[in-house]
TrEMBL record:
<dbReference type="Pfam" id="PF02290">
    <property type="entry name" value="SRP14"/>
</dbReference>
<comment type="similarity">
    <text>Belongs to the SRP14 family.</text>
</comment>
<keyword id="KW-0733">Signal recognition particle</keyword>
<comment type="function">
    <text>Component of the signal recognition particle (SRP) complex, a ribonucleoprotein complex that mediates the cotranslational targeting of secretory and membrane proteins to the endoplasmic reticulum (ER). SRP9 together with SRP14 and the Alu portion of the SRP RNA, constitutes the elongation arrest domain of SRP. The complex of SRP9 and SRP14 is required for SRP RNA binding.</text>
</comment>
<dbReference type="GO" id="GO:0005786">
    <property type="term" value="C:signal recognition particle, endoplasmic reticulum targeting"/>
</dbReference>
<feature type="compositionally biased region" description="Basic residues">
    <location>
        <begin position="93"/>
        <end position="102"/>
    </location>
</feature>
<feature type="compositionally biased region" description="Basic and acidic residues">
    <location>
        <begin position="103"/>
        <end position="116"/>
    </location>
</feature>
<dbReference type="InterPro" id="IPR009018">
    <property type="entry name" value="Signal_recog_particle_SRP9/14"/>
</dbReference>
<dbReference type="InterPro" id="IPR003210">
    <property type="entry name" value="Signal_recog_particle_SRP14"/>
</dbReference>
<comment type="subunit">
    <text>Heterodimer with SRP9; binds RNA as heterodimer. Component of a signal recognition particle (SRP) complex that consists of a 7SL RNA molecule of 300 nucleotides and six protein subunits: SRP72, SRP68, SRP54, SRP19, SRP14 and SRP9.</text>
</comment>
<keyword id="KW-0694">RNA-binding</keyword>
<keyword id="KW-0687">Ribonucleoprotein</keyword>
<protein>
    <recommendedName>
        <fullName>Signal recognition particle 14 kDa protein</fullName>
    </recommendedName>
</protein>
<dbReference type="GO" id="GO:0030942">
    <property type="term" value="F:endoplasmic reticulum signal peptide binding"/>
</dbReference>
<feature type="region of interest" description="Disordered">
    <location>
        <begin position="93"/>
        <end position="116"/>
    </location>
</feature>
<keyword id="KW-0963">Cytoplasm</keyword>
<dbReference type="GO" id="GO:0008312">
    <property type="term" value="F:7S RNA binding"/>
</dbReference>
Length: 116
């Protein structure tokens, strides 16, 4: 797993979306993390120090995993850029065929009336 700065992370995420446009998936997870092991966190809590939590963002396709850690002040700018990237790459999704229940029941009634 490669820990990147936010801007290079967004560039690599864009590349992942472009590589998997025809076939494949990109998984993105967000998680709260202190970036410290459990023993260090307990030690900081016992001494009364404030633990600085960050947002850990991971993205993976089947071949590569990248990640970045965001502070609270960087998060809003990152979120806006991330939303732009998602909107740009949502066109590769397949439309789902929906069956309208009302049309099916009305169609069935019409067919039944025609048979009589």
């Amino acid at each position: 797993m490669v820990l990147l700065q936010p801007d290079p992370f967004l560039n690599e995420l864009t590349n992942m979306y472009e590589q998997t446009k025809e076939k494949g998936s990109v998984w993105v997870t967000l998680k709260r993390s202190s970036m410290k092991c459990k023993a260090k966190r307990k030690k900081l809590e016992n001494s009364g120090e404030i633990i600085d939590y960050r947002c850990l963002v991971r993205a993976t396709n089947s071949k590569r995993t990248i990640s970045t850690a965001l502070s609270a002040k960087d998060y809003l700018r990152f979120q806006a850029s991330y939303a732009t990237i998602l909107k740009a790459h949502m066109n590769a999704l397949k439309k789902r065929e929906r069956k309208d229940k009302k049309k099916n029941t009305e169609g069935d009634k019409k067919q039944a009336d025609l048979k009589k």
